[in-house]
Amino acid sequence: MKLSDYVIDFLVRKKVNHAFSLIGGASAHLVDSLYRRRADIKPVCVQHEQAAAFAAEASARISQNIGVAITTSGPGATNLITGIGSAFYDSIPCLFLTGQVNTYDYSGDSPQRQRGFQETDIVTIASSITKDAVFVDDPNTIRYHLEKAFYLATEGRPGPVLIDLPMNIQRAEIDVETLCGFEKEHNEIKKKAALESLQLDSLAEKVISLINKATRPVILVGGGVRISDATNELMELVVKTKIPVVVTYAGKDAINNTHPSFAGFVGNYGHRTANFTIANSDLLLVLGSRLDTRTTGSRGDLFAREATIIHVDIDPHEINQRVKCDIPVLADIGDFLKVLNTIIRISEPLEISAWLKIVANYKKQYPWIPVEHTKEKEKVDYYEFMQILSEELDDTDIIVSDNGQARVWALQVLSIRARQRFVSSVGMASLGYGLPASIGAALAANDGRVICIVGDGGMQFNIQELQTIVHYKIPIKIFVLNNHSYGMIKQFQKLYFDGRTCGTGEGYSCPDFAKVATSYGLSSCTIENGANIRQAIQNVLQGDDASLCNVVLPSETSIIPKVKVNYPIEDAEPLLDRKEFLSNMIITPFSPQ
Q1: Are both 173 and 211 inside the same structural domain?
Q2: What pLDDT band is residue 222 in, cutting at 50, 70 and 90?
Q3: Does 450 share its domain with 535?
Q4: What is the band of 190 on the pLDDT scale with cuts at 50, 70, 90?
Q5: What range defines the domain where residue 336 resides?
Q6: SS3 letters for 249-317?
């Protein structure tokens, strides 16, 4: 059997439904095999390799299977790097298959800089942002490397893997019956994991004891809850305990945002409600968050500073880093919550009614649209737009966000319901993610409706993927929030660089996106004032075809609230009146010198 055929058949056996690719000479055998098996697995040809990586990553998020991208050597492989990094930092299982020059043309350990045409050592380049990257020089090891790659991508903390396949390896004939697999090593690793899981019962008992003693408990939900497919277990815990829940960037869609226990989005750009709730807690249960600076503020020592912190994570390297915890729990979130929910059945109801009233008052006093926000009189108001969009979405929509101000407005305002999904690149946070990720998400959802929210800057990074959407007739609804600038950096420049906007205002421009969309064959429209926002959104959302809406915003836009460097997250700009601020504090306030 031809090795490239074996690779594609392996993907089919693993129930991979789509593979994203852009063909080149060094990947021609793989892509040919992919297309000849198109009844079992659908090839999706994109316009740029970075888009293939982002599409594969988002496909994995929605399908709960491994995302796959196939590219050629040299520039084809290096163009994957940003998408590989996105999958690595956000713990998304992906397999990246790269073509490579023939083994006899490969310079390898030679001091020669390059021997084969478009030869690049992608394994070394990608090794720091993959769980495993391997150059295959023996065709008889292909089963072993594929099985190992799939295992590593999903085992423990998930992430991407890369297999580099030289052309002569791809076209080699192999005897499938004689190939050796990964089974023995796999079983040994599973045994070790099983032994470690025996500690969960005693840890859960300790956590339940702390919860029962707490008067102001909070659950902080990170991306690990969704990655471990533990949203049902989370909701079971919330229903039983009624503990308020706040979410990180990555945890936005892990809980129904309309649930009474939902207390908002936390962090540097978070809701005041969520930040006050975290700050005043006496017990914080952290589920699957690495507690980065965007969540905790620049001063990790000020985050939940009077709370007992229980940090649950599958990655030991993420515990006790920026924020020191009292009870570390090294475990899969789903496994831990199942044990916790079993034990908590025999516990007494929590005495937290006074705390729930305080959190409810925060929510009433500080709605998701910031009260400090000044509504635009004539132009489109970006917070109002996001609020109306949230109201008009269907309960099963998948919302894919690019990065920058557009994403933060979405995090602040969109009320994600139980069956909706919110997809965004968090760790890499690359502009240009939104459009190709929407493609991957839509195909993984069997062409379910996907809403793409992207800024004008991010739209230009991968605008060529409009052709992919048209070619495959993917029903994506695209909203370009167009302030004619890189708004988030511009806001940063105003704060720290005396308003000099080099590269964000000065030196930056963008096209008429509605006209661009029309040239690709999409229906399009432009919203330029606040008078017809709802009707325009309804028009875009109706129908089964892809469409683009160019939402023209004021050139000066901002995100509020925003936490400054060295301030705790509860004390965000614009600063509240000190009397009001102090009235919201239960713990001792902190004042930066």
Answers
A1: no
A2: very high
A3: yes
A4: low
A5: 199-365
A6: CCCCCCCCCCCCCEEEECCCCCCHHHHHHHHCCCEEEEECCCCCHHHHCCCHHHCCCCCEEEEEECCHH
